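Justification of resources, computational component.

The compute hours requested in this renewal are based largely on the per-chain cost of generating structure records like the one below. Each record pairs the submitted sequence with a full C-alpha cell output. That output is archived, and it is also reused by downstream analysis tasks.
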Amino acid sequence: MAVQVRLATERDIEVVLKVLNKATTHLINKGINQWEYPWVASIIKADILEENVYVLEQNQCVIGTFSIKKVEKKYPIKDPNGNYLYRIALLPNLQGKSIGKVVINYVKKIALSNTIYLDCYYGNNKLRNFYMNCGLLYIGDYPEHDYYISVYKITPINNG
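The structure output for this chain reads:
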C-alpha cells in the first residue's frame, strides 16, 4: 500500500488534529512529553493557510502529517536559508512500519537546494536512532523550555 504526500488544505484541519492528538496521547502514555495536548485548531489552521502542513495518505485516508517552514530566529540553529521540519506525526497503529521514511525521503528531495533542520525530545531514543539510521546528521542537544531537544539536519551534501 503506497503512501502519498500532499499539501494539506483547510478541509484537512480536523483530520490533522485527530492524527496529532492520537500521536501526542501515544507519546504521553510512553512518558515522552514533547507535545502539549490537545492541539489547538487555530494554530493548525494558520499553518495550513501558510502552506506549511503536509499530510500522508494511504488508501485515500490521512494517516500522518508533518510541517515545513523557514527556520525561526528563536531556533537554536541560525541559518537564514534553512528550513525547519516539525510536527511529524503518524497514527500510533502505523508507527514502526517504515512510513516515517516516506517523510524523510520526501524531505530529502526538498533538501537538494536547502538545509532542513529537525529535532526531537532528547529522551526519545527510538526516534533519535531512526533519524541516524535515515542518514541525518546529528548537530547536538539544546535546551528548550524545561527539557532538551536533539537537533539533526539534512543538507544537499549528506543527501545521498
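Helices lie at 13-29, 41-49, 100-110, 125-133. The radius of gyration is 15 Å.
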